[in-house]
Structure formats: C-alpha cells, structure tokens
Design a protein that fits this description.
The complex is a heterodimer of chains A (about 120) and B (about 110). Chain A is an all-beta fold and about 120 residues long. Chain A has strands at about 5, 10-15, 20-25, 30-40, 40-50, 55, 65, 75-80, 85-95, 105, 110-115. In chain A, about 0% of the residues lie in helices and about 50% in strands. The model of chain A has no long low-confidence stretch (mean pLDDT about 95). Classes of the chains: A mainly beta (about 120), B mainly beta (about 110).
C-alpha cells in the first residue's frame, strides 16, 4: 500500500491564484481530513469527511473548499490564495469514522507559500 | 470543546537518559482518546502511543510510556534510554469519543544530545 499520498510536495502561489492540493489513500479508509501546520501552532483541522459525499468544516475552514466524490480522494481547494494561507498542509485518514480511537495516517505534507 | 496544552516548547536530554514531556487535555467528556505523535525533520507524522481514557492502565510501547492522570487531566510521555533518532517535535492530541477529529497541542521540540 502507498498509504496516504499528497501532491504537490511544494508550491508557490501569487496572491489571488487558486489551486488544488491532492490527497489520496489506498487503505479504504472512511475518514479523511486536512490540517494546516503553522510555526508554534500545532496542527489545526480545516475540513474533514466521514465518507464519500459527506464533508464538514473543522476549526479553520475559511478560504478552503473540499469535496469527496470517491472513498480514495479528498482534494483541498484554495479559492483565492492569501499570504495567511502560507503553511504546511497535511492530509490524514483513518479506518473508522465514529470511534475516535483509531490511529490517523498522515501524508507527507505540502509546503505552500503565497507571495 | 476540548483543549490540549503542551507547556514545554523545547526540551533536551542526554542520549541513554530519560525524559518526560508534559501535556494536559481539558474536556468535559468522559469518553475520549489521547495520542502522542512524533514529527522528525522529515515532516512525517508518526503515531508513538495511544491511551484510551476509560482504561486505568497506562499505555506502553517499548521505550515509550505514558502517565495518564485522568482527574488531573494530565497525559505525559516518558521516553526511556533516549536515542539520537528520538529527536523530533512531539505533539499531544486528543479525540472525543464518537469522532475522529483530532485536536493538537502546539508541540514540544525534543533535542537529544550525544
């Protein structure tokens, strides 16, 4: 299994540009999520999904959209990039969607810089 | 809502010695799960250890163990026989029962000195 994969690994955007961060998992996990990591802030939840067709907002959703058309893929869209969105983005997945006890598997992260 | 607090931004330890990283998890729920994740310079997030709140026995994984004091909301990680490869950021995190949403602390940077 490839686990959780993310593309691209690095990206530089200009303010106002849009882009999509890709996330895929091959473990048939129901739950997928996106976090952002900023220096001194830990990881904060942006959006999450408990299954295909179901998404919900996390702690810091503004400026981001998600969709979940398949179990495997959970892309994160930046609609109009802002310098405040400069961060490292992690995608994660876990097997169940309702227990809270499962390990979450993280992708390698995408470092995004908005100038 | 739950909050996770790691009060030590940085810690250091000599190789082969023991170090304890602190975390407090504040929640009104009785059913929850606590985790320690390690993030080495490669940036990859790796699960170190997991504790279920309803279990009185503290979790242990090889050189890693936790001291979970539920009433005090304390969830510390003890690393024994520290190795150079243990150098990393360590994040404490928790979920509420019935939800996979993880809430993270701000992390502790651990340096291991040879």
């Amino acid at each position: 299994n490839a686990g959780v994969t993310q593309t691209p690994k690095f990206q530089v955007l200009k303010t106002g540009q849009s882009m999509t961060l890709q996330c895929a998992q091959d473990m048939n996990h129901e739950y997928m999520s996106w976090y952002r990591q900023d220096p001194g802030m830990g990881l904060r939840l942006i959006h999450y999904s408990v299954g295909a067709g179901i998404t919900d907002q996390g702690e810091v959703p503004n400026g981001y959209n998600v969709s979940r058309s398949t179990t495997e893929d959970f892309p994160l869209r930046l609609l109009s990039a802002a310098p405040s969105q400069t961060s490292v983005y992690f995608c994660a997945s876990s097997y169940t969607r309702t227990s809270g006890r499962e390990e979450q598997y993280f992708g390698p992260g995408t470092r995004l810089t908005v100038t | 809502a739950q909050t996770v607090t790691q009060s030590q931004p940085e810690m250091s330890v000599q190789e082969a010695e023991t170090v304890t990283l602190s975390c407090t998890y504040d929640t009104s729920e009785s059913d929850y799960y606590l985790f320690w994740y390690k993030q080495p310079p490669s940036r990859q997030m790796i699960l170190v250890i997991r504790q279920e709140a309803y279990k009185q026995q503290n979790a242990t994984e090889n050189r890693f163990s936790v001291n979970f004091q539920k009433a005090a909301k304390s969830f510390s990680l003890k690393i024994s026989d520290s190795q150079l490869g243990d150098a990393a950021m360590y994040f404490c995190a928790g979920t509420q029962g019935g939800s996979e949403k993880l809430v993270f602390g701000k992390g502790t940077k651990l340096t291991v000195n040879p």
